[in-house]
Design a protein that fits this description.
The structure holds two protein chains of two kinds.
Chain A: E1 4-9, H1 16-25, E2 29-34, E3 45-48, H2 68-78, E4 83-86, H3 88-95, E5 102-104, E6 112-120, E7 136-143, E8 147-149, H4 152-160, E9 164-169, E10 188-192, E11 198-201, H5 219-232
Parallel strand pairs in A: 1-2, 1-3, 3-4, 4-11
Antiparallel strand pairs in A: 5-8, 6-7, 6-9, 9-10, 10-11
Chain B: E1 2-9, H1 16-27, E2 39-44, H2 50-65, E3 71-78
Antiparallel strand pairs in B: 1-2, 1-3
Classes of the chains: A alpha/beta, B alpha+beta.
Chain lengths: ~240, ~80
């Protein structure tokens, strides 16, 4: 039985098709959910993809966070459903208060579209369970506003609860130093919520699913979801 | 009632846009300036008095127009606009 994974699409989303394709590659059934829909079609996991939802008006992700589809995602996440936000999707999840902190203008002021290397720092999530702690994945970033910021208290909490999922490092796994693509605090590339079912990350795993594209490390995340479906026998959240 | 909402980056939050402007201004010879870049929103609210309008505008500013984690806002009420 193929499980459904919903991929949201807002006006201005542009990575939804890549996400849908990545879902299909691991044998799950991709379903596109338009922003005006408040029904996730019985999906067992949700991806909030990258792009420029609502033209990034006001602040990236701010208007998308107010959409009917996101109201459904908020409910889905509250029931423990797995949610992955990629790039603009991460910004949406922060604006929707499903994740702490905010993504601000890159400290370089430049839009950066480059390969990055991510150290896996949390494996007890649906999306990273197929990784080992300390694995270094090559996944590209493509954003102008990806500098993760949060107050000291929040940063300490994230570290203490091992809620940093990915940190930017150099190819050899050493600290990224001045090679950070965006100047994120503590080199944070991705975090999870307290319950560990919502993960947001700026890099694009769906753009690292083919050797032709330079890396297939991103497949590890989608394969992790498929494996967890197979292992747990999915009960679609919110459907009784 | 018309309410103007001014949103700016919180003190201590890096404002790369303001910093870029500062550097450009420096290039023009305005050496000692400090620049913080924000946004201005003009709201026209139906009915109610000024106190009520400010209360509603404050909620809108907090929930939507600003991200309280990185931005702060100020409100200013104006006389109703007559055409």
């Amino acid at each position: 039985v193929s499980e459904r994974v919903a991929v949201l699409a807002f006006p201005g989303s542009c990575d939804d098709r890549d996400a849908l394709r990545a879902v299909a590659l691991v044998g799950a059934e991709p379903v596109r959910v338009w922003h005006a829909d408040d029904d996730l079609s019985g999906a067992a996991a949700v991806i909030v993809p990258g792009g420029f939802s609502y033209g990034d008006y006001l602040r990236p992700g701010a208007l998308a966070a107010l959409s009917p589809a996101m109201a459904a995602v908020r409910e889905f996440a509250a029931e423990g459903g797995p949610v992955l936000g990629i790039c603009n999707g991460f910004q949406v999840l922060c604006e929707a208060h499903l994740l702490p902190g905010a993504l601000t203008r890159n400290s370089s002021l430049e839009f950066r579209c480059v390969p990055t290397w991510l150290r896996v720092e949390s494996v007890d999530t649906v999306f990273t369970s197929g990784c080992e702690l300390g694995d270094v994945l090559e996944v590209p970033v493509s954003h102008g506003e990806g500098r993760f910021v949060a107050d000291e208290e929040t940063l300490s909490l994230l570290e203490r609860e091992q809620r940093v999922a990915f940190r930017y490092v150099r190819r050899d796994g050493s600290p990224v130093g001045d090679q950070s693509p965006n100047g994120s605090m503590r080199d944070i590339a991705g975090i999870v919520n307290e319950r560990r079912n919502v993960l947001g990350m700026m890099p694009h795993p769906e753009r690292a699913c083919e050797p032709l594209l330079g890396s297939e490390d991103g497949m590890r995340l989608f394969a992790s979801v498929a494996t967890s479906f197979a292992r747990n026998g999915v009960v679609p959240v919110g459907v009784s | 009632v018309k309410v103007t909402v001014t949103v700016r980056p919180r003190a201590g939050i890096l404002d790369p846009q303001g910093e870029a402007l500062r550097r450009s201004l420096q290039g023009l010879g305005y050496a000692a300036v400090d620049v913080r870049a924000g946004k201005v929103f003009d709201l026209e609210l139906e009915g109610g008095d000024e106190t009520e309008a400010l209360r509603v505008a404050g909620r809108i500013a907090e929930q939507v127009l600003s991200n309280p984690l990185i931005e702060e806002f100020e409100l200013q009420a104006h006389e109703p606009v007559r055409s």
